[in-house]
Amino acid sequence: MHRSKIPHQYFHLPSRNNNPEKMGEAKEEEKKPLILYLRQPHPPLEQTLSLKFQILKPPSPTTPIPQFLSTHQYPSSSIRAILCSGYIPIDAPIITSLPNLACVVTTSAGLNHIDLAECRRRGVVVANAGGVFSVDVADYAVGLLIDVLRRISASNRYVRSGRWGREGRGEEYFPLGSKLGGKKVGLVGLGNIGSEIAKRLEAFGCIISYNSRRRKPGVSYSYYPNICDLASDSDVLVVACPLTDETRHIINKDVLSALGKNSIVINIGRGALVDEKELVRCLTQGEIGGAGLDVFENEPSAPKELFLMENVVLSPHHAVCTPESFRDLFYLCIANLEAFFAGQPLLTPVKCD
After folding, report:
1. Contact (Cβ atoms closer than 8 angstroms) between residue 187 and residue 194
2. Angstrom distances, CA of residue 309 to CA of 124, 257, 318
3. CDD domains under this entry (predicted)?
């Protein structure tokens, strides 16, 4: 890309205007730390960031990052921090192209888009969204579960289609839903989000069990080290663990078979935690009772086979999306960046192991 094609507002170029006031503003701008901004455009966040930092960002979300890094005004050695989202990979080529990179702050709770091994090797510290999204995602998970059990979205479609009142005259009665209270719920992952989900479902009278890498100290819920055993003893399986090489397709054929035909899968973690093809097959053949899915393996695509299933509720990866959570996230990201440039510990550091 020729440098002249990059919109000028992304850079703080020296002004030809000799106005002392303008020159003073330019000098003040140069004093601000420089961050590489690699996420979708978000004017409110960018405006707030610009009060404290110089922002360097590609002219378009589709601009190849290596190409941009080789053409922008600043030397790569001047970039010490990245602010990114979960949709843009921060991989080894990007990390190695920035010789003085020392901090990556992501606006997501998940970390599967960051090469943590390379960060560890290079001594790059990483911060994520921490528990900012936990409450909103937990609310959403419970909402999906109630929707699937009580058929709320399906009943909405039933009324809007004009079928209500035509029962017995060529129209079937709307099927009954199922009660939430008393259900045995297995949580795959009991971190910040899983714990908030458990708290809410316990209030509904559900019986909570969980699977994780190890037993959580001070937790009274039943612990299952084997996920198939958890599935076989659950009416509902809620997937809330991080996506790693070890957890990819953790919900597989064996787990789904252990669940049984009346059970429900809720996924608010990452799409690749579930073997999507196997899930579709089980739903198509009636081997499980339903699903509530906010995430998918190949976003923004979802399996078309699910579109006509009345026992499935689909959502466009929106569990985190509330104005309140975004506001808190922006403040956290800025605080993490300020802490880094001040030589202070990050607020939400991540272990790169």
Report:
1. yes
2. 46, 19, 20
3. HPPR
Is the Cα torsion angle 57, 59, 64, 69 positive or negative in sign?
Answer: negative
Task: Read off the pLDDT of residues 129-169 as tens digits, 9 standing for 90 and up.
Answer: 999 999 999 999 999 999 999 999 999 999 999 999 988 87
The answer to whether the CB of 88 falls within 8 A of the CB of 71 is no
Residue 9: per-residue pLDDT:
33
What are the φ/ψ torsions at residue 240 (nearest 5 degrees)? Answer: -140, 25
Known catalytic residues? 270, 299, 317
Q: Tens of pLDDT along 27-39? A: 556 689 999 999 9
Quote the distance between the C-alpha of residue 205 and its chain's center: 28
- The answer, yes or no, to whether residue 310 has pLDDT greater than 80, is yes
Q: Are 287 and 256 in contact (CB under 8 A)?
A: yes
Q: Where are the alpha helices (DSSP H) in the chain?
A: 20-31, 43-50, 65-69, 92-96, 116-122, 134-150, 152-160, 192-203, 227-232, 253-259, 276-284, 323-341
Which stretches of 260-306 are DSSP H helices?
Answer: 276-284
Q: Answer positive or negative: Cα dihedral of 296, 352, 219, 215.
A: positive
Which one-letter amino acid corresponds to residue 258? A
Burial 313-350 (b: 16+ CB within 10 A, else e): bbbebebbebeebbebbbebbbbbbebbbeeeebbbeb
Q: Is the dihedral of CA 353, 249, 267, 145 positive or negative?
A: negative
Q: How far is the first Cα of the chain from the last one, in angstroms, to the nearest whole number?
A: 37
Tell me how far apart the alpha carbons of residues 292 and 296 are, in angstroms, rounded to a whole number: 11
Q: Which of 11-25, 38-52, 325-339 has the lowest mean pLDDT?
A: 11-25
Q: Are 107 and 329 spatial neighbours (Cβ–Cβ below 8 Å)?
A: yes
Bridge partners of 55, per DSSP, are 35
Token pair 């009660």: residue = 179
Quote the pTM value: 0.84
Question: Taking phi first (over 0 means left), then psi (-120 to 50 degrees means alpha), and beta for anything else, what does residue 260 get?
Answer: left
